[in-house]
Task: inverse folding
């Protein structure tokens, strides 16, 4: 069936900040073929295009005078099993919810993405910023993705090296920005049964602590790791259904060892995690120390601000505009620059 093009649609239900901006045109696609049909329409060819998943990593600061194409491609399946290395290839349609894929894999007795439980959004957006949390990243289990070229409608497969994954980075945010629509993602997951050699990843301190609180002794199952991650996330990250937000607004900055040492001499409590080429510093710590945690701006008790349990998360308490949130982000960047001489960069896509 030919997908329909709607005009002047509010994007409010489609972004987790809950921002009320209008899209000139809006359409949904449920398959790669429907997407190709849409890409051939004159209105779509002429206009700027935005591929939309769950809208959980977007700050919409103005009406969008183009075409929003919402990805609703479904489907979860095990493509093949490898008995020798005890893995399976799992393919997910790009419009599936990411957490739904985590639950599906656990139900199938497969593990490898349990640390990424409860990350909002779609499967298709996951490779864009190589989603990561609690000691794991998408690239750890990523095998390949299927995409459609916006310009020609041609299909193309990208292997992991071709995706150029980094910390919250991929080639799709840079060299190939806006050129491809991800239509499916294929992961290589582990069969849990021994002797697969797969051990749950509990390197992230808070997971071990939470498992102990849950009374889990010895090696946890992937289900238990998932439950621990869900518990930790619920305790500090606001639920977008209740408070508008897009998760971490900024990336954690990476400093050279020398720059880190200088700052640490001045701020002995500064946390830091070694990464290749330097030290990663939690932006949430810098923002909190600069005095912004829990801050509210706007009329009454405030329409927007900085979350009171996680300073890296900017929130829309209700009624804020994208421009106000962008102004807040700019002020935070300036304050952190002034106090620490560290540059923060948004993680959220600002439009
Ligand atoms: P959208 O917001 O719809 O789109 C994001 C970008 O990707 C846009 O530029 C869009 O054009 C592009 N895009 C989307 N789908 C496609 C596609 N199929 N093909 C091509 N381009 C596409 N992220 C983490 O990494 N780790 C976390 O722990 C984490 N925690 C979060 C917690 C909360 C409460 C929230 C609200 C967000 C969090 N995020 C986290 C951010 C967000 O969940 C991820 O970035 C997620 O992958 C975004 O998915 P989405 O479908 O909502 O993408
Ligand atoms: N911290 C503070 N004050 C705060 C928040 C954090 O001092 O208000 C310091 C603390 O020292 C804390 C440290 O920062 O120990 C790390 O905090 P947390 O574990 O909450 O993680 P984060 O670095 O703030 C990153 C990701 C999250 C991901 C978590 C867990 C980025 C930009 N963010 O946050 O991803 O869920 O780690 O792995 O890397 C997202 O991308 O949207 C996101 C939520």
Result:
């Amino acid at each position: 069936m030919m997908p329909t093009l709607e005009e002047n649609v509010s994007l409010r239900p489609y972004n987790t900040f809950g921002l009320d901006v209008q899209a000139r045109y809006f359409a949904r696609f449920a398959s790669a073929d429907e997407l190709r049909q849409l890409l051939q329409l004159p209105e779509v060819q002429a206009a700027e295009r935005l591929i939309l998943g769950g809208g959980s990593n977007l700050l919409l600061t103005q009406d969008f005078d183009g075409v929003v194409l919402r990805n609703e491609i479904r489907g979860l399946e095990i493509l093949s099993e490898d008995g020798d290395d005890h893995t399976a290839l799992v393919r997910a349609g790009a419009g599936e919810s990411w957490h739904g894929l985590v639950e599906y894999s656990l139900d199938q007795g497969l593990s490898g993405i349990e640390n990424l439980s409860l990350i909002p959004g779609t499967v298709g957006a996951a490779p864009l910023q190589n989603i990561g949390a609690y000691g794991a990243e998408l690239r750890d289990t990523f095998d390949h993705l299927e995409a459609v070229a916006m310009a020609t409608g041609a299909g193309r497969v990208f292997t992991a090296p071709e995706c150029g994954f980094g910390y919250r980075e991929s080639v799709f945010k840079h060299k190939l920005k806006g050129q491809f629509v991800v239509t499916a993602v294929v992961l290589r997951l582990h069969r849990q049964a021994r002797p697969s050699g797969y051990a749950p990843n509990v390197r992230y301190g808070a997971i071990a602590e939470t498992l102990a609180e849950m009374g889990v002794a010895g090696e946890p199952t992937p289900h238990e790791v998932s439950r621990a991650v869900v518990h930790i996330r619920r305790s500090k990250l606001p639920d977008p259904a209740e408070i508008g937000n897009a998760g971490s607004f900024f990336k954690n900055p990476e400093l050279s060892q020398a720059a880190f040492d200088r700052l640490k001499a001045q701020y002995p409590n500064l946390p830091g995690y070694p990464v290749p080429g330097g030290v990663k510093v939690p932006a949430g710590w810098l923002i909190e120390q600069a005095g912004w945690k829990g801050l509210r701006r706007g009329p009454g008790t405030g329409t927007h601000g900085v979350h009171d349990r996680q300073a890296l998360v900017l929130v829309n308490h209700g009624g804020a505009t994208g421009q106000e949130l962008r102004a807040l982000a700019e002020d935070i960047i300036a304050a952190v620059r002034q106090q620490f001489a560290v540059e923060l960069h948004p993680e959220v896509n600002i439009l």
In short: Residues 76-236 form a domain with the Uridine Diphospho-n-acetylenolpyruvylglucosamine Reductase; domain 3 fold (CATH 3.30.465.10). The two ends are 31 Å apart (CA to CA). The longest helix spans residues 322-340.
